[in-house]
């Protein structure tokens, strides 16, 4: 057997040990023979399909051994070993085999390969696969060559991260005798991806992780402790994400920096924008430095202002605690008091009343102890002097302070002339002659300005210390104009059989009713005009889309859910044109299967299925009709009555397809003219007379809809919710349409729901009743949320089913799913519905009851109502009605997130100019305390009852 055949046999057998022994014994000629065949063979295997690709991955270790031993250039070997199909096998065992083989290669060649392998290392994307493969794929081999040859590895974050990931995966820690230790630690603090391994190792038993081991090595003198401190600081200043910083925060804390080692300037600059964990570290260390007298007034002011600006309540509260501890009384620095007042003024606008009130109390305490010195008015005799010296000695310039939004500062520079904690900005201010009293004046001014927006009682308290404060004059806020999200315009009809074939071959997923209706309409029309031309155009599609030879058994018994969705039925329509015999055979098989496996599709979906199946039957018997009646003429799914009459006239006395006529009637608008009924009577067919009667009656009378959500608990499924919906017709329903009013259980195919608003575009409440069960069951998946957003573009009354459906979507966990409810509310407002306020009150009541029953969470509902309010949806009727249900009884505890609901209600009431009263609001507003709920209740009550 020649060398290549022998190598291939070992690879196919998975005999890696035998392969190593064999290729190690090959001479130059044998290795060249293998190298010629190997790349082409692998390319052929990969081209055979996904099964061959999986088999290749299973044999990847053998391919790696063969390539490493037989390919000639270092570049060729590096490229081969880094092929995506072979990379997953690059673990420790693989590295040991290949390193043993490569010892035959020249030293310079191996050094070159080591550099190339290090440069080609890449961190895995997505899930951390390194955890299960023993480290970063390819790292063991690259590191082994580096250690064997002594070459310095090029800078590559993946190599450094791989050093950490390997230890994390194997539950090891750095050793003092690790030859890579010094180089890797020097690069550790800049390497992206290293934090993942550090964090994973911290999940082990406490005290036996990589970070703790590095700190111990520094304590033993093996590593320089200052290098670790400086490295951590560099990482903090890098702007990395929170998960990339957490292990280094732990390292800094374990190093227990002396107070003189705290980099106060850099830590101050971290506070505005650093993630919460390093920001907390910076705060703790700065407070230690402040207690030791190493933080000057300017840096103190910058730090507390930065904390006051942060969105996290805990950091704002920390700023207040620090101010209370660091500026206790009249003996303190006036400049520090001024900086503290500026920070406190920022907190006056905080959302939490308790935090805001505490800031006011602190400001009053500081203001009582620290009063700015009045600036003397210069006399006429000193005017020339002060003017001549104004450029060098300003008398009333405020102390320059860095912006609280300043990002991380520059690297520290040693300056023995500057005391710890002192900044160049502070020294420059002192050199310019800015007095601490000026900083205090700035603080007083900031407090008075911020107090203007405080509630009356707090503003009055501030005025007793800081002087008169004028209330902020509220400018009239123009209400935003709601803009409905437009539906996509209908595309023009398909013009040729060739275009029809193209559209069939690229039907979108999920279903797009407008495009599907366009395709089936063209198929019917073109087949009537020239069936042979359609068959010829569709033949390539038929060969590629349907198994040849045709296999009825596979379609009937092997495809789950086949023949029930619009896509399958539309494809069957085209099959019935191209190959009627195959289609008849398939229909017979499906009908027989349905006798023993009856479908359980929602009743409203049956209408679509009936309509497409009658087209299939028409083509199977090789019949045609000139046009479909129910093809929509509007993006809402409506059919223009004039167009419907014209289509009926095209039939030239023939009767239309029954389900097509049923659907066309349901798609007519609610308002028509009497003349159209007369014209329909004149057609002289049964369909024409039925249309005339429909037009005179004004369409299908609106049924009565009732809806209740029932919650049940079972041992197997826990808590389940299902709607109890009843749609009761007020008059007799025409034959063929009774099913559309029969609301069934939820569907197993939620993607079907995109069709339902198109089935009854003039009866939104009925469609909402059908949507309710799948909306509850599937959480908006499969286009259900979009079906609700499309529903409101139609016509017809809105009632409890629509309100319950909207409430259900408002309560979805994922914000992108809840967005459909926002779109629906804004669309309803933009359309200026006749009973918009009445439906709003109904919706608010349904929302309130759903919250009390635990069916939805108020904080999720609030995001929808808030966004709708800001979009001009006019949500006051909804909010007022919800408050009537949710406001607590006297002495009862308020519902969670009620403060958010009240805040949005204030905004909505201001925009709408609402006045009056909400039952229970005055009692809640009169409660004592500084909770947000009470504060917002007082704001709303004040607005509603003021003259």
UniProtKB/TrEMBL annotation:
List the biased-composition ranges (Low complexity): 378-400
Q: Give positions of region: Disordered.
A: 368-430
Q: Which domain of life is it from?
A: Bacteria
What is the name attached to this protein's record?
Answer: Secreted protein
């Amino acid at each position: 057997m020649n060398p290549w055949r022998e190598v291939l046999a070992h690879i196919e057998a998975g005999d890696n040990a035998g392969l190593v022994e064999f290729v190690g014994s090959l001479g130059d000629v044998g290795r060249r023979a293998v190298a010629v065949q190997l790349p082409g063979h692998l390319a052929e295997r990969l081209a055979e399909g996904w099964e061959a690709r999986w088999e290749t991955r299973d044999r990847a270790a053998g391919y790696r051994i063969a390539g490493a031993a037989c390919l000639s250039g270092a570049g060729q070997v590096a490229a081969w070993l880094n092929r995506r199909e072979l990379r997953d096998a690059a673990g420790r065992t693989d590295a040991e085999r290949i390193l043993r083989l490569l010892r035959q290669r020249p030293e310079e060649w191996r050094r070159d390969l080591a550099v190339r392998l290090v440069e080609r290392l890449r961190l895995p994307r997505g899930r951390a696969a390194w955890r299960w493969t023993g480290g970063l794929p390819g790292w063991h081999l690259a590191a082994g060559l580096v250690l064997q040859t002594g070459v310095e590895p090029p800078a590559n974050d993946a190599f450094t991260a791989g050093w950490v990931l390997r230890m994390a995966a194997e539950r090891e820690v750095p050793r003092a005798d690790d030859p890579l230790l010094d180089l890797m630690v020097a690069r550790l603090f800049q390497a992206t991806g290293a934090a993942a391994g550090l964090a994973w190792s911290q999940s082990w038993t406490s005290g036996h992780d990589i970070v703790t081991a590095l700190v111990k090595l520094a304590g033993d003198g093996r590593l320089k402790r200052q290098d670790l401190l400086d490295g951590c600081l560099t990482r903090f200043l890098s702007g990395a994400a929170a998960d990339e910083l957490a292990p280094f925060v732990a390292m800094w804390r374990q190093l227990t920096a002396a107070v003189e080692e705290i980099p106060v300037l850099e830590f101050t600059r971290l506070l505005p924008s650093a993630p919460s964990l390093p920001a907390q570290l910076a705060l703790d260390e700065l407070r230690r430095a402040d207690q030791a007298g190493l933080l000057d007034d300017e840096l103190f002011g910058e730090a507390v202002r930065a904390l006051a600006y942060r969105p996290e309540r805990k950091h704002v509260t920390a700023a207040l605690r620090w101010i209370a501890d660091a500026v206790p009384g009249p003996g303190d620095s006036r400049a520090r008091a001024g900086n503290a007042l500026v920070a406190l003024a920022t907190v006056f606008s905080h959302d939490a009343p308790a935090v805001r009130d505490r800031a006011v109390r602190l400001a009053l305490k500081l203001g009582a102890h620290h009063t700015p010195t009045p600036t003397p008015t210069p006399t006429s005799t000193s005017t020339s002097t002060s003017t001549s010296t104004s450029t060098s000695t300003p008398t009333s310039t405020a102390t320059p302070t860095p912006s609280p939004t300043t990002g991380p500062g520059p690297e520290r520079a040693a300056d023995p002339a500057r005391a710890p904690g002192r900044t160049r900005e502070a020294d420059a201010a002192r050199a310019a002659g800015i007095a601490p009293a000026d900083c205090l004046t700035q603080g007083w001014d900031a407090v008075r300005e911020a107090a203007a927006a405080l509630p009356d009682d707090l503003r009055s308290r501030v005025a007793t210390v800081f002087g008169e404060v004028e209330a902020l004059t509220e400018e009239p806020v123009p209400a935003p104009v709601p803009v409905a999200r437009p539906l996509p315009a209908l595309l023009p009809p398909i013009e040729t059989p060739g275009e029809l074939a193209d559209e069939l071959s690229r039907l979108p997923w999920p279903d797009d009713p407008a495009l599907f209706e366009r395709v089936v309409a063209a198929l019917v029309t073109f087949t009537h005009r020239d069936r042979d031309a359609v068959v010829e155009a569709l033949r390539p599609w038929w060969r590629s889309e349907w198994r040849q030879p045709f296999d009825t058994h596979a379609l009937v018994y092997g495809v789950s859910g086949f023949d029930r969705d619009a896509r399958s039925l539309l494809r069957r329509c085209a099959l019935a044109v191209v190959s009627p015999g195959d289609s008849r055979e398939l229909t017979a098989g499906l009908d027989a299967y349905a006798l023993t496996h009856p479908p359980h599709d929602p009743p409203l979906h049956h209408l679509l299925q009936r309509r497409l199946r009658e087209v299939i039957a028409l083509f199977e018997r090789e019949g045609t009709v000139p046009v479909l009646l129910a093809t929509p003429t509007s993006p809402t799914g409506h059919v223009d009555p004039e167009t419907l009459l014209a289509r009926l006239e095209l039939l030239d006395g023939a009767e239309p397809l029954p389900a097509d006529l049923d659907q066309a009637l349901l798609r007519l608008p609610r308002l028509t003219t009497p003349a159209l009924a007369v014209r329909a009577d004149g057609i002289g067919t049964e369909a024409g007379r039925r249309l005339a009667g429909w037009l005179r009656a004004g369409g299908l009378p609106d049924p009565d809809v009732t809806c209740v959500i029932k919650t049940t608990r079972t041992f197997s499924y826990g808590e389940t919710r299902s709607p109890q919906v009843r749609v009761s017709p007020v008059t007799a329903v025409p034959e063929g349409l009774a099913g559309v009013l029969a609301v069934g259980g939820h569907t197993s195919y939620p993607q079907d729901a995109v069709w339902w608003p198109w089935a009854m575009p003039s009866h939104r409440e009925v469609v909402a009743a059908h949507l309710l069960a799948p909306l509850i069951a599937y959480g908006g998946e499969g286009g259900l949320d979009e079906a609700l957003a499309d529903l409101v573009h139609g016509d017809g009354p809105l009632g409890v089913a629509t309100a319950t459906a909207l409430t259900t979507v408002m309560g979805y966990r994922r914000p992108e799913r809840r967005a459909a409810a926002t779109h629906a509310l804004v669309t309803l407002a933009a359309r200026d519905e006749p009973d918009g306020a009445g439906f709003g009150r109904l919706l608010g009541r349904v929302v309130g009851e759903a919250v009390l029953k635990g069916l939805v969470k108020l904080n999720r509902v609030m995001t929808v109502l808030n966004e709708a309010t800001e979009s001009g949806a006019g949500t006051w009727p909804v909010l007022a009605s919800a408050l009537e249900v949710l406001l607590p009884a006297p002495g009862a505890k308020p519902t969670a997130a009620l403060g958010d609901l009240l805040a949005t209600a204030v905004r909505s009431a201001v925009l709408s100019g609402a006045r009056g009263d909400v039952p229970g609001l005055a009692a809640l507003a009169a409660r004592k305390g500084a909770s947000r709920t009470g504060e917002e209740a007082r704001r709303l009550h004040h607005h509603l009852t003021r003259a």
